[in-house]
Amino acid sequence: MIVLKLKESRRARITDKHPRRWILEWNPSQDYNGPLEVELRCASLKSVIQWRWFDFALHGRRATKLWQVAPQPSYHYILEHNRSQTLVRFRLPAGIKKKNRCQFKLTVKPPPIYGLTAPIALLLFKDAETIATEGPVILAARAGRPAALSIASRAASEDDGALRVVIAPIDRFGYPAQFAHPVSVRLSVAKATAWQGSVQGARMLFLKLPAKKTMRLRAKIDPQQLRGDRRQISNAELAAGKLQAVSNPVWSRAPQGLMPLFGEIHWHTDLSEDGSGSLAAAFLAARDFLNLDFAAPSDHTPVGDKWRNTVQVCDRFNAPGSFATIYGFEHSSSHGHVNFYFTNPDHPLQPDTAPKCSQPAAYMDTLPFKHFIVIPHHSNAVSDAVRADGTTYWRQYPWGRPRAYLCLVEIFQIRGNFEQESPPPGWRTLQRNNGSSVQTALNKGHKLGFVGGTDNHCGWPVILSELATAPRFPNDKVPLPSRIYTGVWARSRSRGEIFRALSLRHTWACWDTRAIVWFAINGVLQGGELRAKRGSALKAWIRLSVEAPLELLEIVSRAGVVRSYRSFDAGLDLEKRVNLGTALEDSYYYSRARQKDGALIYASPVFVKVG
């Protein structure tokens, strides 16, 4: 037996800009005659990739370092060359005596991912055989100091008329932080006080508010409570001696009796080999901190006990009228990645029965039960990682013939925006001209609604924490914390109604804003199909509430941009009636908008069939 313990741990935070020193003490309980080899391994693939391993040293014994991991190895490198997830290996030519203490000194930088620990075990080898093991010892880092004040409001009230609001200090990556002491906060709507109390960590409120058409909550704080450090609320402005932060928009009344609801349906947990964090913790974050209306996991083919766990946790958190969960998982192949979603856990498409195939549509077409949704993601991107033979691990999505279950597309995620083949700057597009953009699919006749997904692997919906470890978008500024939402127009917060709204494409996608957008043509809501007589007038109705001033609003059709607006009245709410001309041929129309801070909003198309 070997004794391994964490001797020293500097108070590391996930927001640290520089590496920290960690010391593991090794105390052998018996003599081991040399030569020996000793190795440190990390049990989490995600941690090997995301923690940055700068240096390892073994003190207290003569040793030779044989190998150490790169500071930040790629996922594919680990899979191909280091499946044991070894961090460092030393040779001890003379062995080691009982209780001859040694210290491993690790120079490591924690990642900007909340809750991603690094479990490290020690292994002893003699003549290439493992003779002893000990551990794991857990390296962990805390959330960062408060950098902003989040006021996450649901965009529509609860069934009892109350508005659910979560107010919380967050660190610079968007994770929950804490003030050093309770801070007095006054929440108001239209100058009327809605709530007054103290906040130190995250706090959930249920507020009875006036039935105004559109509203936002304002939080006011005396900056002296923050000991003069106004950077602790970087998203607030100083007015009349108070720091003021503003919530996302709320619609107390929406057309057609529908509700604007927000969720996240593409994120991974430790049920994926390359993910971290538990599914239960992810749902807790989605419901109680991010204040979402719905969520769906999408782990990589969680078969067997993993799927049973997925179903059990989804059912435990599903609460009709309050918070909805949907079953989902990701199918990955070299021919493009897709996510499957359904409301019956015993669906024939579940991970335990779905075959691994390069063309999943060939199998799905044979299913007698069609009540499921398929969503391609990173449709116009090709893997950056390349095999030894020069081939990529995966390619762009192969758009074939339209299918009813192929009704949505992830228009953007961590790999960028896939709307256009070659857009101008400002649309956060990374890969171009791969022939599988959203517009390419629409022009082939696919009827697709738009959703957004993070595709993060940190068990924390909405937040794009990976941006901090792998900076992207050199030409398009993407702030931290960056976040992506899917919006739906639904009749209630229930699994069936959310799934119905997704199936009908009554959706919109937001990147770095929790904006609300209503887009309709001749009374047909986004995602719907409009049958129009040839020569009849087409009139669009756009109602949009954003979090920062607008820079651009456009309506796009098969023919290109048909309306473009760059001048807007002051304020964050807009409503337009737009004449689109006459219906002459089949087409589609969708709206896209960009805030001045770079945030993006896409409303699903209305599909016009001319008869």
Can you characterise this structure?
The model has no long low-confidence stretch (mean pLDDT 91). The chain starts with a strand and ends with a strand. Helix 3 (279-289) runs parallel beside helix 4 (305-317). Helix content is 10%, strand content 39%. By secondary structure, it is mainly β. Strands 22, 23, 24, 31, 32, 35, 37, 38, 40, 41 and 42 form an 11-stranded mixed β-sheet that branches. The chain has a 5-stranded antiparallel β-sheet with strand order 6-7-4-10-11. Strands 15-14-18-20-19 form a 5-stranded antiparallel β-sheet, with no helix packed on it.
List keywords for this structure.
mainly beta; 11-stranded mixed beta sheet; 5-stranded antiparallel beta sheet; about 600 residues
Mean pLDDT: 91
Determine the fraction of residues in helical runs and give it as a percent range: under 10%
Oligomerization state: single chain
Strand fraction band? Answer: 35-45%
* Apparent shape: globular
Number of helices: 8
CA radius of gyration? 26 Å
**Are there runs of 5+ residues with pLDDT below 50, and where?**
none
Structural class: mainly beta
Q: State the major sheet.
A: 11 strands, mixed
- Rounded to the nearest angstrom, the distance between the terminal CA atoms is 80 Å
Would you count the extended β strands for me?
42
